[in-house]
Amino acid sequence: MNIGNLIMVVVGTGAMALFGIVAGLFYMGIDRVLVARMQARIGPPLRQPFIDMAKLMTKQNIVPANAIPWLFNAAPLVALASSISIMLYIPLGSFAPIFRGYGDLILIVYLLVIPALAMVVGGLASGSPYATIGAQREMVTMISYELPLATTIIAFAWKYAQLGLDNPFSLATVAATPIWSQVGPLGFVGCLLLLVTMILVTPGELGKIPFDTPEAETELAGGLLVEYSGRNLALFYLSLGVKAIVLTAVVVALFFPYNLSSYLAMSALPARLVDGAFFLVKIFVIMFFSVSLIRIAMARFRITQVVDVYWKYLGALSLVGLILVMVDSFIR
Amino acid sequence: MRLSQTLGKSLWTFLFNSGSCNGCEIEMVAAVTPRYDVERFGLKLVGSPRHADLLLITGPVTRKMAPRLKLVYEQMPDPKIVVCVGVCGISGGTFYDSYNLAGPVDQIIPVDVYVPGCPPRPEAIIHGVVTALAKLEQAEKVS
Predict the structure, then answer these.
(1) Which one of A147, A157, A179, B1 is most buried, counting C-beta atoms within 10 A?
(2) Tens of pLDDT, residues A263-281
(3) Domain B7-142 architecture
(4) Which of A47, A55, A225, A296 would best serve as a mutation to test chain B binding (most B beta carbons within 10 A)?
(5) What residue spans define the domains of chain A?
């Protein structure tokens, strides 16, 4: 890799981090306002998450006496850094990912585990019984949603490997040949089931209601995050915001890789801008259906119910989706 | 610790019941309902004192709750505000000569603002919080 490429990667990473954090907080604000409106409230101003972050940065940062200080302080940094590093592998609008040609779908599934694991480590390192229970629940939740998530990714990987393209597992290939154009009616139904699965996996990954058992404010007093305050808490919130963008961007890249500019004749720069705006709209739509709408309509599941929902119902749903996609490509 | 500009716009609140009859809790929950909607001002209820800026205490302090109240107060990160809601926390209220009282709230931890009433209306609680913020700003200017 020469110097020019290196500079590109460094600058691009900085830009991605900035975009991820700003967009993550912005969508958090939109979510809070929308939820308030659905409850017939006025809700906080749109920039409320930014104010919250600014406030948390000025607060005292307490490290409890029982905690392991270096692990306790490192966990939020690892969570944020790993969330941002996933962004480098995901196409945003018509911008190709910074590490184009390196990562693929399988890598993203592995990387998605790291922020959650960092939260678990931070929870266990904080030396509070509430945080320990929260960490154990987070592990169980992770194990639960991995099944439907992995099945969905396998369905995609299998389908694209079947098509005989080069780099079948890379997100760029998925973006170039949308899944919907490659399947017949049966496969279409299968893909719809996989889409529903991914939309329901998203709140689990993000720890939102009804899958917020690891945080569970009313019973675990904040669970994993119970001992965190000030700057460390702010870093965890930022990493959750970035992770929300990452997950919805993955859903967009898998299921809705369409760009407006290919339908309208436009020169390069406006096309990029239009695609960027369209990408933000797509993220908003996914976020609305997978986070805001579900969050407002449901109460919290117990941890046993979380496992049931992910393994039995969504696992079955995604397997049916996978089988439909396979049957579809065999009979075509 | 210095008071930040953003503290007043993003008050995260921890509710603490030190032996109340639940009347004040009902009024405080009413303050987050659509009619009063304190989330408009960025106020949010949190589950852990480590996340909180504002401690809302209801009820007189019973002997069992006194050490816990002190612990919760000490667990909050600076800068922090304490508002005592209801007449019980001010004087003991109807329970003033009860055998199991450790005393009113201000004998256990320092209190910034008292909100009288049995129970106080949600407007009164919101006003109490605003007064506490103004008082903190005043203290900041003087120091």
Answers:
(1) A179
(2) 766 677 777 788 788 888 8
(3) 3-Layer(aba) Sandwich (3.40)
(4) A55
(5) 3-331
